[in-house]
Structure prediction request, 248 residues.
Amino acid sequence: MLTVGVDLAAEAVRTAVAWLDWSADGARVGRIEIQADDDMIVEALMRADKAGVDCPIGWPDAFVDFVVAHRAGHVRVPAGVAGRDWRRNLALRVTDRVVRDLTGLTPLSVSADRIGHTAMRCAGLLAELARRGRPADRRGDGVVVEVYPAASLRRWGLPFRGYKRSANLAALGDLVDALREAAPWLDLGPYERVCRASDDATDAVVAALTARAASLGLATVPTGEQAGPARTEGWIALPTTPLRDLHG
Prediction:
């Protein structure tokens, strides 16, 4: 089995892709690329059995309705709703609120934060994937599943904060150490050095691990009233079991 993790940014310069090959012996990092362009990402997604993409793959339904109404000049603010509460409903998807409730972490708002630029790039990548015959199901049922590495790390009991950017390389190294200890079956091989030098690379590996969890049915899925919004807004898969369960 091949799982792919994509730590997506608006441009190639902060984008990393990791390929994990799974066998009875465990998982081996077969390749990591940083500064990945669109062609490389699409080719990786085409080859993957399951791919985790760290980026919103949809916008809040309420926000889309708001923009459409605004264009037509028919915006109506709900009566009796405080401004902040109303705007929060436009800023967060159903899955964002679920992640916040389960982990205490609030994902960046795709409609109100700069992550929107990355989501625009992601939309183009998924459109190209569909043109090649592998359409993405925003609920995560297809080849692509939306992931949030910090939330995955927290669910696995691993360090999930303070390892970003070059000023925090020591903390990044601690995270890699913790990951190797928690998953002795994970072989980083020659790419361990890359993971210790680039938080983008490490997040791509975590995204690929989360994709494995989703493929095994060991991650959250939308249920009940969540299913409808997830179809258009997207759904962040959170691991539901310890990291060790990814290697049966």
